[in-house]
Write a structure and sequence with these properties.
Blueprint lengths: L7 H8 L11 H29 L1 H8 L3 E7 L6 E2 L5 E14 H4 L5 H9 L10 H26 L3 H42 L7 H14 L18 E8 L1 H8 L8 E10 L7 H4 L2 E3 L2 H10 L13 E3 L2 H5 L1 H4 L4 E7 L5 E8 L6 E4 L3 H20 L15 E7 L5 E7 L12 H9 L8 H4 L9 H11 L8 E3 L12 H6 L4 E3 L1 H7 L2 H11 L1 H10 L34 H8 L9 H12 L3 E2 L5 E5 L10 E2 L5 E2 L5 H16 L6 H4 L7 E7 L8 E8 L6 E7 L5 H18 L14
Parallel strand pairs: 2-10
Antiparallel strand pairs: 1-8, 2-3, 3-4, 3-5, 6-7, 8-9, 10-16, 11-12, 11-21, 13-14, 15-18, 16-17, 19-20, 20-21
Length: 750
């Protein structure tokens, strides 16, 4: 019986009467429980899907149309520079560039972008219908084709020309895409090779534990290796690209006013500096150019709490002339706008956060009609000088000759005209080609050199006006005491007169007036010997020589006024008796600028008032400014201490006879019948085998002076023959421009 199937365990269970849970006897329960375990999570997932599709769909659709906000600056207009007679010398002009989003010009269109554009045209419930999505894509393609046709019509061009520009942009962007992805692929390949090499490297027993720990750490912390990445999307694919620059304003406004007609199109507004008068007073007006890193860093250090003019990289700043001096007025302040873009980088709308503020206008004292005439006559004179005449052959003329003319108001110091030759076009400095820039730098005539304020030359006999003031104020020389000029001072071979060198005779008996009239060097030699160099130095210092005049443009030089005082530490050379004689006639180591000589004549003309030459007349607020009142610019004025009116009257008498008297050095070349002119010729020796510098400086009208002027022709030769005719044409131009009125001469030639 013990060999029968079964065991006590089964017997005991049977005897229990089925009281225990019998799994094998209830298979349906087991299947039900398994099904329940599977169905419940599926029901939860299905419920969540239904909730998303029916109840929360708008939340996800809104994320699909999510936008981004960014802030961009709005360029402002810098102030204008305007002449006193109303001509605009510098201004900002708006430039409009037509830009298109890359996805709108890409051919063939990007599939993902095309689908996204199509989905935006459909309702959320329609986006699951593939037929409707395909139809919407066809609608987007048709709209894109219509865009280029309408754009070509507005731009007054053909769709083919626009497509050519689009292809150029696409080729450039595709080159960038290929380059970026090649570098990324190469980098990934190099990384795989490195890892493979590290895996195959033989590990010693000592490093096995460390290697095991590294593998374990990498397995737990390093993300799983992904398949080869998709193509990188570069920034240029999500940006706008310029198709046309400098489009007309009316076209730009027409496109901007109808964004619904031109999707994917953006008008970029920028401002450009222009100088419409081109070569008119370029050295004085100056230029605005892109700010450099050094200047930007200097401003950040100067204004640690924020630049009040808000200069940033890429902005323009005044570099030279009036543009630099009055930059704080001319500078406009940028505005701010909020730009809202979709996920593809397309601009949906813009909002103005802060309006831009234009810069103020600066009005100059220049009379542009006279400025034009002066520049032209200076150019003509230099051209004739280089060509040569019968009196002065061209081979005796330095080919690098230049010239300068300065005219200023004797009462205020306002500069009416300032011309330097040769000159240049200010617009050339904005965007010069390398060839153009090199040509300007290599020009031996130095057209970029501001001669009025930086050309330092010996003044020659024009300085005798100051020596005359010094000898009368010293009390050591009687201006009415006759002096017999033999043509030389001590020896026939030294310290001679011009007429003695050429004709072997002197001026005979003369006084101060006649010495000025005939420019007798010997008279001023003996006067300087009597009064000493200290007196000449004192009055030269009092009248502003040896230091800048204070004109309101940067870079002015003060010339060199040699100091006759005893040797001091650092003094380069001692003082010799010959230096005293040379300084008396505007030679030796004395150098001046044309502006200083013009101011000297103004002091003589206005009874001793030392004016500050200046170019700015007033500041005119912009339309956005809180004030509408024109701001007049004032300049300091002072009378020269210790000078007597009688002294200046006596000097004026001699300067009038220089032109009005038949024996005056300016009689033949400067005198005009319509108006009396006072002045002084000057022929400054240069040495080195080069021609002398030709000067003429004076004021007009002689009896009631209004304007002082200085003319200098660099290496021109004789002052009376070369600079004198230029001065005569200058005064005639002032008459023609109505700055002067003809007067009947009161002083007749003897």
């Amino acid at each position: 019986m013990r060999n029968r199937p079964g065991n006590d365990h089964m017997t005991l269970e049977n005897e229990a009467g089925g009281q225990s849970f019998q799994v094998d006897r209830l298979p349906g329960v087991r299947v039900f429980l398994l099904g329940l375990i599977l169905v419940v999570p599926l029901l939860a997932v299905s419920g969540r899907l239904m909730f998303i599709q029916m109840m929360n769909a708008e939340h996800f659709y809104s994320r699909f149309g999510q936008t981004t906000e960014s802030f961009e600056s709005i360029p402002s207009r810098d102030g204008r520079i305007v002449s006193i007679d109303g001509r605009v010398l510098a201004l900002d002009v708006e430039r409009f560039d037509l830009q298109a989003h890359y996805r709108w010009l890409e051919e063939p269109p990007n599939p993902r972008w095309l689908k996204q554009q199509a989905l935006t045209l459909l309702e959320p419930v329609e986006r699951r219908d593939q037929e409707k999505v395909k139809a919407a894509q066809e609608q987007v393609l048709a709209r894109r084709q219509q865009l280029w046709e309408e754009l070509a019509q507005v731009m007054r061009t053909t769709p083919e020309e626009l497509q050519t520009s689009c292809r150029d942009v696409q080729e450039r962007v595709e080159t960038i895409i290929e380059s970026v992805n090649q570098r990324a692929s190469q980098k990934e390949n190099d990384s795989e090779v490195t890892e493979a090499e590290s895996e195959t490297k033989t590990v010693t027993k000592e490093d096995q534990l460390q290697q095991f720990w590294s593998l374990l750490k990498d397995a737990l912390t390093r993300p799983p290796r992904r398949p080869r990445r998709e193509r990188i999307v570069v920034r240029e694919e999500l940006d706008y690209h310029t198709l046309a620059s400098g489009i007309p304003r009316e076209i730009a406004l027409a496109i901007s006013a109808h964004p619904e007609r031109f999707p994917g199109i953006h008008i970029q507004v920028a401002t450009l500096r222009e100088y419409p008068q081109k070569t008119l007073a370029p050295h004085e007006i100056g230029i605005r150019h892109r700010i450099d890193e050094k200047t930007l860093e200097a401003r950040k250090l100067r204004f640690p709490e924020g630049d009040p003019l808000d200069y940033q990289e890429g902005d323009r700043i005044g570099k030279m002339g009036v543009e630099r001096t009055y930059d704080r007025y001319l500078r406009g302040l940028r505005g701010l706008k909020k730009v809202i873009k979709n996920r593809q980088g397309e601009i949906i709308r813009t909002e103005i956060v802060r309006e831009p503020k234009s810069g103020d206008d600066v009005v100059l004292t220049l009379n542009t009609s006279l400025q034009d005439e002066v520049q032209n006559l200076l150019d003509e004179s230099l051209h004739e000088l280089r060509q040569g005449t019968e009196e002065q052959p061209a081979e005796q003329t330095d080919p690098a000759a230049g010239g300068c003319v300065v005219v200023l108001d004797v009462r205020t110091g306002a500069i009416v005209a300032t011309a330097a030759a040769p000159r240049y076009d200010l617009n050339l400095l904005l965007h010069p080609t390398p060839e153009e820039w090199q040509a300007v730098l290599n020009d031996p005539r130095r057209p970029l050199f501001p001669r009025a304020t930086q050309m330092m030359l010996p003044p020659g006999s024009t300085f005798k006006a100051l020596t005359s003031i010094a000898l009368m104020e010293s009390g050591k020389v009687d201006p009415d005491e006759p002096y017999v000029c033999r043509g030389y001072l001590d020896r026939p071979d030294r310290h001679r007169d011009y007429i003695y060198r050429h004709y072997g005779v002197g001026h005979n008996e003369l006084t101060l007036t006649r010495a000025l009239r005939e420019s007798c060097n010997v008279y001023f030699f003996q006067a300087a010997r009597k009064m000493g160099p200290e007196t000449i130095y004192h009055w030269a210092d009092q009248l502003g020589f040896g230091k800048p005049t204070g004109i309101d443009i940067p870079g002015e030089r003060g010339g060199h006024l040699p100091d006759p005082s005893p040797a001091k530490p650092g003094k380069k050379s001692p003082w010799y008796p010959g230096d005293t004689l040379g300084m008396a006639i505007g030679q030796s180591r004395l150098t001046v600028t044309p502006l200083q000589i013009a101011r000297l004549m103004a002091v003589v003309a206005n009874d001793g008032e030392l004016v500050v030459p200046h170019l700015a007349h007033s500041i005119v607020p912009s339309a956005e400014s809180a004030t509408t009142t024109r701001q007049m610019i004032s300049y300091p004025r002072r009378y020269v201490s210790g000078i007597h009116p009688g002294t200046l009257e006596r000097v004026r008498e001699g300067l009038i006879e220089v032109v009005a008297h038949s024996r005056g050095t300016g009689y033949k070349t400067v005198r005009l019948k319509e108006i009396t002119i006072a002045g002084k010729t000057g022929t400054a020796e240069t040495g080195g085998g080069k021609n002398d510098h030709a000067w003429f400086a004076g004021f007009v009208p002689a009896q009631r002076p209004k304007y002082a002027f200085a003319v200098v022709i660099e290496h021109g030769g004789s002052g009376s023959r070369v600079a004198g005719p230029v001065a005569q044409k200058l005064v005639r131009a002032m008459l023609d421009s109505s700055l002067l009125q003809p007067t009947q001469p009161k002083l007749q030639a003897n």
